[in-house]
Specification:
Blueprint (H helix, E strand, L loop, with lengths): L13 H21 L2 E2 L5 E3 H7 L5 H6 L2 E3 L5 E4 L4 H10 L9 E10 L11 E10 L4 H17 L5 E7 L3 H16 L7 H9 L10 H7 L11 H16 L5 E2 L13 E7 L7 E7 L3 H4 L7 E7 H12 L8 E7 L2 H16 L4 E2 L7 H10 L2 E7 L1 H6 L2 E5 L5 E4 L4 H12 L1
Parallel strand pairs: 1-5, 7-8, 12-13, 12-14
Antiparallel strand pairs: 2-4, 3-4, 5-6, 6-11, 7-9, 9-10, 10-11, 14-15, 15-16
This protein binds adenosine-5'-triphosphate and magnesium ion.
């Protein structure tokens, strides 16, 4: 037990961490360029927020939540996704009173009690954006463009954008009825989960992977055929904007998304490189969500992307990010006198933002040089009694093998001069 992490969790370190940081840097840069600001909401919220905000009929709420009662008898849940907390903050902090739209992004851990497998964990991480306050297709286009640019900048090229419109609440209601009528003829062939969905949220049956259900669905009516004029025009304008930005897409009437409150646009970026769990990013418009969470009617559009799945895709394309960690200099020593001098210089180097390591293991000179190599130091030097006596130290360029002799007090100046050149 002590040395086993809980099932479905992961430690992030080493080359995986290198890729992770690259992803975070890219996300920060792109969101800033698009004018989205970061928000960090708590890891846990009142359970009710997710019941409302994610929806009672979803797999997440029905089966997957990490919920508990705290010592004050409150019902608490570790967040299973990023949107609900952001919606709560938008309302509680009255962000709607600021100039609209409100454009936010987050990077957060998320928790779902699922069967762990490739690309599916119990603690995973999501990057997501939320755009509140605009019902225009241009807002959908902006959010999709952000996702497309992010994937491109991460080098994730082998993904397809699948896009669909479910229509507004009226269209959805009409479509649910048409679908129910169609399914009623074959209701005995549906799996138990779909039987339940048939009553509560028939649309989600389109999402079922069960073969028998798929067979029944073959000739099912599709949401796109029930759109009213306004929803149709909204969707077409979005597609025109994507065309204008040269963002490729496939209109895919089978995309419905798991959450209950999607209206109109839904989309997924699907990777062909990482097997069955191929959705790296999914989102859409949810004009009813804020109302559902207790706010006044406010249109919203956004997406969530699984960071682990993005990294899987990056690694499938580029291999793992094995970049050796590098230091500007390894400054070692032998003997007690040299130790004090060395620590003083090392500290001075660090104050000057030069990355440096020294000996913490009382190693021999030979072993120190081996260590310097291993950490990828660009320069190395060792200070001993001789160097102190003659006030001269030999600095070695580890790449070119060139050496240069300096006075001890010149090390900091020399490294400052050579630092820019190192970056
Ligand atoms: P799936 O169909 O794979 O279960 P989902 O519909 O439950 O996905 P969302 O709720 O839309 O997924 O979450 C957004 C993104 O978070 C997904 O596209 C995926 O990349 C990622 N994700 C969801 N669940 C997990 C998990 N258990 N482990 C790792 N990543 C996940
Ligand atoms: Mg899921």
């Amino acid at each position: 037990m002590l040395t086993n992490a809980p099932r479905g969790t992961k430690d992030i370190y080493g080359s995986y961490m290198n890729t992770w940081k690259k992803l975070e840097d890219t996300v920060n840069e792109i969101c800033t360029n698009f004018g989205f600001n970061e928000i960090r909401t708590p890891i846990f919220e009142h359970t009710e927020l997710f019941q409302r905000g994610v929806g009672e009929t979803t797999d997440i709420v029905q089966k997957e939540m990490y919920s508990f009662t705290d010592k004050g008898d409150r019902n608490i849940t570790l967040k299973p996704e990023g949107t609900a907390g952001v919606v709560r903050a938008y309302l509680e902090r009255k962000m709607y009173a600021d100039v609209q739209p409100t454009k936010l992004f987050y990077i957060t851990p998320a928790f779902r009690y699922e069967r762990p497998q490739a690309g599916r964990y119990r603690q995973f991480h999501q990057f997501g954006v939320e755009l509140f306050g605009s019902d225009k297709p241009s807002a959908d286009a902006e959010v999709i463009a952000l996702a497309a640019n992010m994937l491109k900048n991460l080098g994730i090229t082998n993904v397809e954008l699948h896009i669909n419109s479910l229509g507004g609440p009226e269209c959805r209601k009409k479509y649910n009825n048409t679908l129910k009528e169609f399914l009623s003829k074959n209701i005995d062939s549906l799996c138990p989960t779909c039987l339940e969905r048939y009553e509560k949220n028939p649309l989600r049956i389109l999402d079922c992977k069960n073969e028998k259900c798929r067979e029944v669905l073959k000739d099912a009516p599709l949401a796109k055929d029930e759109l009213d004029t306004e929803c149709k025009e909204h969707f077409e304008e979005l597609l025109r904007l994507l065309d204008a930005m040269e963002i490729e897409y496939t209109v895919d009437p089978w995309i419905v998304r798991g959450l209950d409150y999607y209206t109109r646009t839904v989309f997924e970026f699907i990777s062909k490189d990482i097997g069955a769990q191929g959705t790296v990013c999914g989102g859409g418009r949810y004009d009813k969500l804020i109302e559902e969470c207790g706010g006044s009617p406010t249109p919203a559009v956004g997406f969530g992307a699984g960071i682990e799945r993005l990294i899987m895709t990056m690694e499938a394309i580029n291999g793992s990010n094995q970049d050796k960690p590098t230091r500007d200099i390894y400054l070692g020593y032998v003997g007690e006198n040299a130790k004090k001098t060395t620590f003083a210089i090392v500290n001075e180097l660090r104050k000057n933002n030069i990355s440096v390591e020294t000996d913490l293991m009382s190693r021999s000179v030979k072993a120190q040089m081996k260590y310097a190599n291993k950490i990828g130091a660009r320069y190395s030097a060792i200070i001993g009694d001789n160097e102190l006596e003659e006030n001269s130290v030999r600095i070695k360029n580890m790449e070119t093998r060139e050496q240069i002799d300096l006075n001890i007090e010149e090390i900091v100046k020399y490294m400052k001069e050579n630092k820019n050149f190192l970056d």
